């Protein structure tokens, strides 16, 4: 079992920056995918960015446009999402999630079956005001 706990959310004005964190504990695997997802009010949850155990990153380009950066500190078992140039439409609950990594052709996107993220944090609220 893997436990994920997000922190670092808050309120910021448009154009500002924020970094959210996700601390992982429990039976973490040596080969994994971790991702950031978000859900805005009245909308479906969407993927933001992903990283595997080797540090390879993947972004949902239509959402990110180079404003967000995913990273990890393996020594601290912590995942980060640095968000810059924030916009009001970035307002959402941000979740981190984890699943196993299935090899070089796996870009860590959310999928089905074994490609579905099966560990989730409780989320942290990010609010961007105009």
How would you sum up the global shape? globular
Mean pLDDT: 94
How many whole angstroms does the radius of gyration measure?
14 Å
Beta-strand residue percentage: over 45%
Runs with pLDDT <50, length 5+? none
Class of secondary structure makeup: mainly beta
Biggest β-sheet description: 7 strands, mixed
H/E order of the elements? Answer: EEEEEEHEEEEE
- Give me the number of helical elements: 1
How many extended strands? 11
The separation of the N and C termini measures 40 Å
Reconstruct the topology from this structure.
Elements: E1 2-7, E2 10-13, E3 18-26, E4 32-39, E5 46-52, E6 57-59, H1 61-64, E7 68-73, E8 78-83, E9 92-100, E10 119-120, E11 124-129
Parallel strand pairs: 2-11
Antiparallel strand pairs: 1-3, 3-8, 4-5, 4-9, 5-6, 7-8, 9-10, 9-11
Give an overview in words.
With 130 residues, the chain is mainly beta. It has 1 helix and 11 strands; from the N terminus they run E-E-E-E-E-E-H-E-E-E-E-E. It has one helix at 61-64; strands at residues 2-7, 10-13, 18-26, 32-39, 46-52, 57-59, 68-73, 78-83, 92-100, 119-120, 124-129. Strands 2, 4, 5, 6, 9, 10 and 11 form a 7-stranded mixed sheet that branches. The longest helix has 4 residues, at 61-64. The protein is globular, with a radius of gyration of 14 Å. The termini are far apart.
